[in-house]
């Protein structure tokens, strides 16, 4: 859908903070599937965690991203997604070799412009839900730099700026 906008990119690049700012500005936002899955799996003692069973984690993220799209259909105006289906499919394809991205060229589309947060080592931090280091985050970013354009999306790299400037940048780019 043309009003579904993905904010993706490097882990620890400030995406969640940016989505919170867009939410404060009155836009509908959808929290990252990965964070929600990790919280749930840790609470329930599950194994669909990126550091235990990364493929199961990616499959759950794909399913959750599809559910998020269906739920967001009732929202009016722009809906900003902290990551999305392409991110999960790119991870699954990288991990298993399954052609998870192929169907996404024509199905379950987002707005043609995708905003990517570049690696930003100065703000990168691990936490209980993000245990991987900056090198793994940068490798993931490289895969996304290839996956989105291969599916026909236009990439717009976010500036390394304060959150308000980043939100202004996105709003201007979508006018």
UniProtKB/TrEMBL annotation:
InterPro entries: NadR/Ttd14_AAA_dom, P-loop_NTPase. Pfam families: AAA_28 (PF13521). It comes from the Bacteria. Residues 5-166 form the NadR/Ttd14 AAA domain. Transmembrane segments: none annotated. Gene3D superfamilies: P-loop containing nucleotide triphosphate hydrolases. This is AAA family ATPase. It comes from Microvirga aerilata.
């Amino acid at each position: 859908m043309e009003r579904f906008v993905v904010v993706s990119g490097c882990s620890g690049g400030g995406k969640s903070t940016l989505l919170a700012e867009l939410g404060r500005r009155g836009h509908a936002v959808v929290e990252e599937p990965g964070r929600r899955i990790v919280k749930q799996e840790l609470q329930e003692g599950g194994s669909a965690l990126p550091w235990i069973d990364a493929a199961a984690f990616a499959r759950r993220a794909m399913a959750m991203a599809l559910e998020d799209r269906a739920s967001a259909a009732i929202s009016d105006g722009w809906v900003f997604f902290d990551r999305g289906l392409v991110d999960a499919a790119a991870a699954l394809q990288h991990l298993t070799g399954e052609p998870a991205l192929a169907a996404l060229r024509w199905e379950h589309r987002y707005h043609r412009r995708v905003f990517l947060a570049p690696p930003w080592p100065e703000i990168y931090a691990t936490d209980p839900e993000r245990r991987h280091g900056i090198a793994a985050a940068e490798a993931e970013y490289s895969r996304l730099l290839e996956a989105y354009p291969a599916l026909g999306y236009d990439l717009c790299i976010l500036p390394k700026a304060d959150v308000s400037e980043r939100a202004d940048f996105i709003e201007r780019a979508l006018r």
